[in-house]
Automatic annotation (TrEMBL):
Protein name: DNA 3'-5' helicase
Taxonomic classification: Bacteria, Bacillati, Bacillota, Clostridia, Eubacteriales
SUPFAM superfamilies found in the cross-reference section: P-loop containing nucleoside triphosphate hydrolases
InterPro entries listed in its UniProt record: DExx_box_DNA_helicase_dom_sf, DNA_helicase_UvrD-like_C, DNA_helicase_UvrD/REP, P-loop_NTPase, UvrD-like_ATP-bd
Keywords: ATP-binding, DNA-binding, Helicase, Hydrolase, Isomerase, Nucleotide-binding
Source organism of the structure: Ruminiclostridium hungatei (Clostridium hungatei)
Annotated ATP binding sites: 31-38
Example GO molecular function: ATP binding
Length: 701
């Protein structure tokens, strides 16, 4: 411990210490994951207060999302006590802008209404759905809605004024965008992204307000600055222009919000933007086991568009990171469970923190289901997921409700046209006008004139639902799929609406997997309601069972955080890399469009302290899946790493033949002659040995 370290209760290396001691003027820290960037930012705030006599309230530390802000605040509070930590302002860019806007509104005595995204029926989502429907005459699905929201965010963040020549994925994006903006304007509404542009224009228009903030925050620090967008960057420049005290921390390899307008180039051009500045580099990774550091750094080196950095591992090698191919979703879950039950943690009472990371929120449902069923404590870090409100889920539950209760006319009305049983609107109306005490089908048969074949058909439907009620839930869903041709009807519907049906297939599969673990239909319906509550509960729904040992998070929101053990799941093409980008890469024969996807994969890998599992299922219920191209890259890198060990004299341990050493390698191949302890020299194809886990190399690195 150095005296400075002791004073600040934190262990720093000499490079970090130098950065912490940075006083006035602009500074840039450019460094890889786990090198202590966030550590330095917090320590520097303490240093400014304790050594340079700066008042805590003059320091503004900005970061990207709420979780990162809270994490930093917590770390700071723990190290330096609440008396000073309460006065240092840790904020997200959005919360800071919100404060500016509020201040302005207070001055003006006028308040704009905030619209939030999460209220499905009232907020931004509903508004955008309605606008989209009106303009395109077709409905938008959840995936497309998310994309639309991102595209609106991109326009705002990049200050795009002219849409001509820009490719947006949303149908008639410019019209939808303008209708949305007009609606907000005439109803005095403001959304999440408006907060940034609005705050910026307030600060540029009201010099007194700007002066107030410039005087107040004479030291500005920004973490995760690689994800700053144009508007955010401009804001920071505006705020810090007078003092020039801006301390920026970034890793261009972790820039993952390009699709919403992040522009790491600003950071790389920092000197151009801010004039002469101090640049600090931190080159030692304190987070991850040596082999995780080496694998992830060779992985990211495949990106062309980046600044190369040194990543020396401080920690010794631990467990080899693993790529894990499973035959199905179900096996993927089983793998996670087995590993968790194995306990991973050898150090006894220290809690072993595990994260399950994925690209898409949908991946969290079955994992949450699994953990909850097994009494493993977990928390979900994400926005509310409206899976259980989706029409497909509603329809499937309506099928089952109707099977359980043939009088349930409401359930019947949701699905009569999905049964492929020639049930007409007139029949439905007849049923709706019935008393409600009689079975729906009986009402219809008595209520309208029907041809014999129609009567026969209805009798058959009645029987089918009675049989459905007796089935186990998984079989019931299989029956709905095969006999009522449910998915075919969904496919047709999606075709008509011009929406993707892949998403809906996926929802169906998730439902069926939940059903697999339920023994009765009633049990299944209860289970869905239970899961719905879990997801709707709050952002960090912790469930019973020994605290939150497992965190479920998207790769995007895992940025900046660390866990002892990381599972990255659903690593298939179409998921990561996403299908649109993959198509584009193939079409343009240009792999550089996948660089942001590779960075996202990298962010995931670099969250792990000790164990890293890269998991993917090779099939879903209805098709074979392709492993992510990044999985093959990782496997290739593994082999390259290993090849370094394939030199004369290198020691090996073979499962059958025991210890040995390489006598010679055949040129340009993986065939080796190895002398074993029994004196025999054997010729082995090392690649096959590795694939079958027959061989280990002594001290590869
Ligand atoms: P990311 O890019 O993922 O945000 P980072 O550069 O911000 O990573 P930190 O989160 O600050 O890295 O640090 C990673 C881990 O290394 C933390 O657990 C931190 O406590 C630890 N650490 C940082 N510096 C040192 C050091 N000098 N000695 C020991 N541990 C350290
Ligand atoms: Mg960090």
């Amino acid at each position: 411990f150095n005296t400075l370290d002791r004073k600040y209760n934190i262990r720093l290396n000499s490079e970090q210490r130098e950065a912490v001691r940075h006083g006035e003027g602009p500074a840039l820290i450019l460094a890889g994951p786990g090198s202590g960037k966030t550590t330095v930012i917090t320590a520097r705030a303490a240093f400014l207060i304790k050594e340079a006599g700066i008042r805590p309230q003059n320091i503004l530390t900005l970061t990207f999302n709420k979780a990162a802000q809270q994490e930093m605040e917590k770390r700071f509070g723990r190290l330096y006590g609440s008396d000073i930590s309460e006065k240092v302002h840790f904020a997200t860019l959005h919360s800071f802008c919100n404060r500016v806007v509020r201040e302005y509104e207070r001055m003006k005595g006028r308040k704009l209404q905030r619209i939030e995204g999460s209220e499905q029926e009232t907020g931004k989502h509903k508004l955008l759905k309605d606008i989209y429907l009106k303009i395109n005459n077709s409905r938008i699905n959840d995936d497309e809605l998310e994309n639309l929201i991102n595209e609106i965010g991109l326009v705002k963040n990049s200050l795009i004024k002219e849409f001509e020549g820009l490719g947006f994925n949303t149908k008639r994006f410019p019209q939808v965008y303008r209708a949305y903006e007009d609606y907000k304007k005439s109803n005095l509404l403001i959304d999440f992204d408006d907060m940034l542009t609005y705050a910026f224009s307030i600060l540029t228009k009201y010099p007194r307000l700007l002066a107030y903030y410039r005087n107040k925050y004479t030291y500005i620090q920004v973490d995760e600055a690689q994800d700053l967008s144009k508007i955010q960057f401009e804001l920071i420049r505006l705020l810090s222009a007078e003092s020039g005290n801006v301390f920026i921390v970034a890793d261009d390899d972790q820039s993952i919000y390009g699709f919403r307008g992040a522009e790491p180039q600003y950071i790389l051009d920092f000197e151009k933007q801010f004039g002469q500045c101090s640049i600090y580099r931190l080159e030692r990774n304190y987070r991850s086991a040596g082999n995780i550091v080496r694998l992830s750094s060779s992985f990211i080196r495949q990106n062309k568009n980046r600044y190369d950095k040194n990543h020396a591992a401080v920690n010794a090698s631990g467990k080899e990171p693993e790529t894990v191919k499973t035959r199905s979703q179900r096996e993927q879950l089983k793998f996670i469970l087995d590993k968790l039950e194995e306990g991973g943690n050898s150090s006894g009472d220290i809690p072993f923190h595990t994260a399950v990371l994925y690209r898409n929120n949908l991946s969290s449902i079955l994992v949450a289901d699994l953990l909850e069923r097994n009494g493993i404590g977990f928390k979900i870090r994400q926005n509310k997921l409206h899976f259980f409100r989706h029409w497909l889920v509603q329809e499937i539950t309506a099928f089952l409700h109707f099977a359980l209760n043939p009088r349930d006319v409401e359930a019947f009305s949701k699905i009569y046209y999905r049964m492929n049983r020639y049930i007409s609107k007139a029949m439905l109306e007849c049923a709706l006008s019935g008393s409600g005490n009689r079975p729906v089908i009986d009402c219809i048969m008595d209520g309208i004139e029907l041809k014999p074949f129609q009567l026969e058909g209805l009798q058959a439907v009645k029987l089918e639902f009675a049989q459905l009620a007796e089935k186990r839930p998984w079989n019931a869903l299989e029956y709905i799929k095969n006999n009522f041709k449910y998915l075919e009807s969904v496919k047709e519907y999606c075709g008509l609406m011009g929406i993707s049906c892949e998403y809906n297939y996926r929802l169906f599969e998730i439902l069926q997997e939940i059903a697999y673990n339920c023994s009765s239909i009633v049990g299944f319906l209860d289970r869905l309601a239970e899961l719905d509550r879990l997801f709707e509960g709050n952002n960090a729904a912790a469930c019973a069972g020994g605290g939150a040992a497992v965190t479920l998070s998207t790769l995007h929101s895992s940025k900046g955080l660390e866990y002892d053990c990381v599972f990255m799941i659903d690593l298939i093409n179409s998921e990561l890399p996403g299908d649109k980008l993959l198509e584009k890469a193939v079409e343009l024969k240009d792999m550089s469009v996948l660089e942001e996807e590779r960075r996202l994969f990298y962010v995931g890998m670099t969250r792990a302290r000790q164990e890293l599992y890269l998991v993917y299922p090779s099939a879903s219920n209805h098709e074979n899946l392709q492993a992510s191209v990044f999985i093959s890259e990782v496997c290739r890198l593994f082999n390259n790493e290993l090849e370094k060990g394939f030199s004369e004299g290198a020691g090996v341990i073979h499962k059958k033949f025991g210890q040995g050493s390489i006598v010679s390698m055949e040129p340009n191949s993986m065939t080796a002659r190895v002398r074993f302890k029994d004196g025999q020299v054997r010729t082995l194809d090392l690649r096959i040995c590795i694939e079958n886990r027959m061989i280990m190399f002594e001290d590869i690195h």
